[in-house]
Amino acid sequence: MNDLLPDQSPVWQYVESTLSELFARYGYSEIRTPYLEATELFSRAVGEVTDIVEKEMYTFDDKSGDSVTLRPEGTAGTVRAAIQNNLLNQPQRLWYFGPMFRYERPQKGRLRQFHQFGVEVFGIPGPDIDAEILIMTARLWRQLGIADSVSLQLNSLGNAASRAAYREALVDYLQARREQLDEDSQRRLERNPLRILDSKNPQTQELLAGAPCLLDFLDEESKAHFDGLKALLDAAGVSYEINPKLVRGLDYYGKTVFEWVTDSLGAQGTVCAGGRYDGLVEQMGGKPTPAVGFGLGVERLVLMLETLGVLPEFLNRQVDAYLVAVGEVQSAALAAAERLREDLPWLRLQAHMGGGSFKSQMKKADKSGADYALIIGEDEAASGQVTVKYLREEQPQQTVALEALAALLRE
Ligand code: ATP
Ligand code: MG
């Protein structure tokens, strides 16, 4: 669980504002749900036999003996909130941002408290909305300057019946070759065989080359949905790769599943992942409601932006002007700073406090990244003036009346 230190927060603020503005441009509204939920919510929604529920949840009893869990993902809580608050009488396009908690082995791009942006859309059954959220994410990558470093993997899991039929065929195939599977996959064979498909073990992958293919088992409706989605993405110019072995680690998915992956992060290559979960709302006690969404890992996204060197230069500048106050001028300096903040609401002004020599204050002004040092010494304080020194361009300094300063800076 990381602290987010001041030198990192500008990058996070940039990512957060880019995403929230993008979602607003597509007509999505923000939802905030509690970080703590009843444990049962996740075991039911995410699935008992998933990595998350079996071994990754932060679960404890509260003071009244109820089992509660720090949310490991955002979909379950969003669905609960949407049902309880009657949001599902009409289509909803929602987004959220916040911390998620999973007890995993920490490593690069994998933390125990991490952060996700997520999108959940309710009440729209067709592939057009699957296409919209993928087109929106493609726009996000372009906006952040990483479109060349991510690619889209796409698959369809079909409906529950076709998944069950496929599951049987896969188990038959693997059962006959059981001794060639590693321990993890053997365990999954009984409990969650589809997860074997995304095993990282090369020997298992070799074995899977001859296995039955999920896409051959798709029911007509899922196939039409998948074909529709592919056609819409083709028309929109969003390229993708069909990966018939792409399954997701959560039980609620059916039909469309996808991952945006990168090879710039080593093993933790999935930045954004999601899919359709038409059955979940009903399973959680709501009326049948089609749904589709994704989660996007912010730590991985930030790592990517840093690794690829695509962060905008303006992030290094957190203040525009630095007020240098030399001598017994505290009251004049505070008044000048407030006057400027009154006149120029966009100005980011850091005022030096605590005294010190002119030289040491000018060093701090330079280090702050500000474009201007605004200097008030005893002469300036007496005459109601300020000296403006340009820190980033070759320009002679000038001394102006406090009343004229706002106009000069605006210019
Ligand atoms: P992975 O296969 O990497 O474990 P996942 O399938 O568990 O990912 P999801 O539950 O779909 O991931 O979460 C969506 C996104 O959240 C992931 O694609 C990833 O970017 C991010 N994410 C998931 N777990 C972590 C973690 N422990 N630390 C940081 N980011 C994470
Ligand atoms: Mg995981």
UniProtKB/TrEMBL annotation:
Location within or outside the cell: Cytoplasm
GO biological process: histidyl-tRNA aminoacylation
Gene Ontology MF terms in the entry: ATP binding; histidine-tRNA ligase activity
Matching SUPFAM superfamilies: Class II aaRS ABD-related (SSF52954), Class II aaRS and biotin synthetases (SSF55681)
Keywords, sorted A to Z: Aminoacyl-tRNA synthetase, ATP-binding, Cytoplasm, Ligase, Nucleotide-binding, Protein biosynthesis
GO cellular component term of the entry, any: cytoplasm
Leading EC class: ligase
Pfam families according to UniProt: HGTP_anticodon, tRNA-synt_His
Enzyme nomenclature, EC number: 6.1.1.21
Keyword Membrane: no
Keyword rRNA processing on entry: no
Aminoacyl-transfer RNA synthetases class-II family profile domain boundaries: 1-345
Highest taxon of the lineage: Bacteria
Binding site for L-histidine: 73-75, 102, 116, 120, 248, 252-253
Known catalytic reactions: tRNA(His) + L-histidine + ATP = L-histidyl-tRNA(His) + AMP + diphosphate + H(+)
NCBIfam families linked: hisS
Family note: Belongs to the class-II aminoacyl-tRNA synthetase family.
Subunit field text: Homodimer.
Protein name from the UniProt record: Histidine--tRNA ligase
